[in-house]
Amino acid sequence: VNRPPPGDRGGESRLARVRLPHGWAEAVAYHTMDGMSTTEHTEADRLLGLRALPVDNASISIDGMESDEAGLRSGRVSWGRKAGLAFAAFTSLGALGMVAMNAVRGGSADLAQQAELAARAEEEAGLRDADDSLFITGRTLSMMKRTHLSINAIKGGTWFSDVVGLGLGGQEYWYNSTANDHIGSGTVGNVSTEAMEYVNSGRKKICAARSEFSWTNIDQSNEYDMHEFQGAQTTSGPLGPDYWWDLIYTMNTQYDAPSDSNVWNVFLHMGQHMYVDDLTKHVVHLQDKGTPFLARYYTSVAHGDQSTTMYVIFVPNPYNGNVVIIHSGAVGNWHARNLFRALETEACVDAVSLPYPLETLEEWWDDLFVETVNPRELPRPIPILDSHPVHDFDEVVDYFGPDALNLANWSNVNMVEWSNNETTTGADSAFIGTCSMLTIQMQSQFKSDYQMRYVYTPMAKGFTELSTFIKYVDGNVRETVGFNSGYSRWMDNHIALSLPEYDGTELEYITNLDKLRPHLEQAKTPYHAHFTEIIDGLDTGSIWAWGPGGLGIEWHGTFNYTSFEYPVGNFDFCTADSACQADDRQCNMNGDDDTAGATDKHSRTTK
Question: Which pTM value belongs to this model?
Answer without folding.
Answer: 0.78
